[in-house]
Amino acid sequence: QVQLVESGGGLVQAGGSLTISCAASGRIFSINAMGWYRQVPGKQRELVAARTSGGSTNYADSVKGRFTISADNAMNTVYLQMNSLKPEDTAVYYCNALGYSDDLTPFDSWGQGTQVTVSS
Asked: pLDDT digits over 64-79, tens only?
């Protein structure tokens, strides 16, 4: 079992900054990629940013230049630094991790989500 725990969400004014984090734990052999997704009621969950174990990153067009994804050396914790926040960034942000458990079975795990609210 692999658990992902997000933290750092909250309420921020438009133009402000917020950093959310996600810590992975459990029977992990390796993590190949971690990412942040977000979802608002009535809409599909969308990719915000992702990072591979090799350091490659990918961002949604809507957040490029404003958000930065990073991770610790072991890639057990991933961060999303969000700057110049807009009301349309309001959503529940979910962490996702892809990798292999210590029995070498693949996993695709999700966190419970953290609410980010940007007021205008």
From this structure: 999 999 999 888 999 9
